[in-house]
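Lab notebook: predicted structure, single chain.

Context: the supervisor wants predicted structures on file for every construct in the current expression panel, including those that have not yet been purified. This is the next one on the list. No modifications to the sequence; it matches the entry in the shared construct table.
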Amino acid sequence: MGDTGLDVVTGAFGYTGRYITRRLLAAGRRVLTLTSRPLGDSPFGRQVDALPLDFDRPERLREHLRGASTLYNTYWVRFSYGPATFDAAVENTRTLLRAAREAGVERVVHVSITNPSEAPGLPYFHGKALLEAAVQDCGLSYAIVRPTVIFGPEDILINNIAWLLRRCPVFGVFGRGDYPVQPIFVEDFADLAVQAGRQRGNVVMDAAGPEVFSFAELVHLIRQAIGSRTRVVSVPPAVALLAARLIDGWVGDVVITRDEIRGLMAGLLVSNESPRGPTSLSDWLRRHADSVGVAYASELDRHYRSRRAQRSA
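Prediction complete. Output recorded below exactly as produced.
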C-alpha cells in the first residue's frame, strides 16, 4: 500500500499516546485516534480525528484502521477494575491486531514493559509477554518498545510519591528498598516510539533512562528535590499494602497494588541494554520541584471512570 501519511494512535488523549501524537503531528503526519475516553477530551482540537475504541465490533475497528500506515498501540490496563481485566485487555489487543492486519496496516508499534515474563504470578507482566508474542505473530512489520517507569508532568508514580511526601509525616518503603528502577522521560520515550515507527525491520527494544536508583534512593531523591521533611522508613510489604488501602479511601483511587509491589521488588523496571533516553530524572526534578506532587494524579479518574462516563453518555 505504501505510506499513506496517516497513522493511528490508540489513546492519543492519554499519557504516552499524547506525546507520540504531538511528534507525529509535528512531522506532518495525519493522526486518527481510537480512544476509550469521552470524545470531547481531545487536547488537539480538530487536528486529530477521534473514533471509539470498540473491541466488541471488530468490523468497525477494521474500517477505522483502513488506510493507515502505522498503528501506535498504547492500550493497556494498569490493574483489573470491574470488567477492565488483564485477560480482557489481552483479548482486546489481539482483536485490534487482527483488525489492523485485515485493514492493510503496514506496521505496528506496540508499547510493552521491560522484562515481561510469562510467569502467571505477575499478571501485568504475564499479559505483556502474551501480547509481545501476539505482535510477533500478527503478520505485520512490528516494533515492540519496552519502557521502564515513565516520568513527566502527567505521570502517576513519581508525582504521587511526591504528593505523599508533601503531606504525610511518614513514607513507607517496601522492604529494604534496594530493588532497582531506571526511569525514562516521557518525551524521550515518545521519540523512541516514533523513530521505531519510521523503521521497517522488526525490532524489540528497551526504553530506559540514564540513571538507575534503588527504590529507596528514588524516594529520597524526590524528597530532597521538593524539600520534604517526611520521615522515610522501611516497612514489610504487607504493612505497606495495608497503608495503601487506607490511602485509597482518602484519595478515592488505587494507589498501588500487591502485584505492583511484587514487580517493583523483583527488580523488573530496569534494563539490561544501554540506556536510550538521555534525560535524567535528577535534572528534571530540580527543574520541576515546584510543581511535581502538588496535585494528586488519579488512575481511576484518568482511565476507568472516564470510560464509564463514555458508555453512559
